[in-house]
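INFO worker-7 received task bundle
INFO bundle size: 2
INFO processing item 0
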Amino acid sequence: MAGRVDLSSVRMLIAEPERSMALLLSTIVRSVGVQSLVTAESPNQAVEQMRAGSINCALINETMGGMTAAQIIKPIRSILRPSQFSAIMMCTRPTPSAVRSATRAGYDLVLAKPFSAFDLYARASVLVNVTQARHREHEQKMERLEALSEYYQFEIDETRAKGDQGPVADQPVV
């Protein structure tokens, strides 16, 4: 059986318009091991918190300030790629169409309300693992691109050092 996933390095945003619910969610989030936590009571605050940086997971209410979950996540996803950030939408009635809409909009998971600390831990653990895998994959791609760039720059420099400028536009290539 796999060991418990350590969520202490997760930096979470709770986007919830009701203060009492935000406080309850903060308690639940801390109980599953998340130590770094910020809250937002409006969509604008949520986006500001994301722009401020270092959030890697968000728990976002399905509606805030007259905006839908899809409207809330759109500006956040424009800031951060999936390899940098995971989003969980809290939903009172997670119908199949609501779940499809949420995932199309940019949410990684939908969490049905009410939920337990274990439900949140299970989903957050999966997202931490997925986000870490996405990040590793992104880093590997960037390393490969950098290596290719260096290789081609070397080839260009070698060609120029030999005096070969390649085909000239007004000369036919034979």
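INFO item 0 finished
INFO processing item 1
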Amino acid sequence: MSSTSAAIASLVFTAEELTLLTDVAELTPLFTWVVSDLDEVGWDAVFRGLCARGVLVPVAGPEGGVSIAEDFRGVLGVAFLAPRATTVATELAAAGGTRRTVLRFQDLALEHEELSRGIHAFTPDLPEAAVDGLVSVVVGFPAIAETALAEPVTLSIDAYVAAIQQLSAGDLAGAQLAWPEGSDYLAHLAGDPESVSFSDVERTANDVRARTLSFTLGTDALWLVTIGESIVSVRPVDSVTAESLVRDLVA
């Protein structure tokens, strides 16, 4: 990274600007975004805006064109080249949803946060300690007492969705009747718990591998939710176990 980009606290781009920048860089990032349906005039305005900000600069030579300016290349290089991304997504009862992603490339890391729909912020030069700190803040589960680790309760995806739909309609008893083994978990969900999920994505030459841990957190209970291709499993865990699982995931 250049000394100029290192001094930048954060960089903010719209989804449309990111789309145009990935086209210029001819790279595909590990995170996705939703883009507005712009016409040619709209995309031209996006292009001119990036040029005015100095993000895109002319390329000297007979072929011309533009490239990403050096001051921005370090940050966007990490964003677009990162072979690994760790996402922390929270749904808090009071504050709504947030999603923060740490993107890692070699010994560099930056944080990506969607500030609002279509607005993306990047904080460069994130030390590795800050990655651990982000996990610590979000994993700050209340002290749920350690108990004997329960066997997971499993259900097919379709049956799970049907039970959740009944619960969402206010029919807890009906949902528990449809999924009696999951009665305790459904009662937990009826209390409108907060949810936190951690996803770790790694890109190799031939594949993208993703692992995810999801938790629902009530006033006195913490549940681990694992969603597979056809099966959902849930089980209560204590806060120490939960934090250990997360740290193993993002290590």
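INFO item 1 finished
INFO post-check item 1: The mean pLDDT is 81.
INFO post-check item 1: The two ends are 24 Å apart (CA to CA).
INFO worker-7 idle
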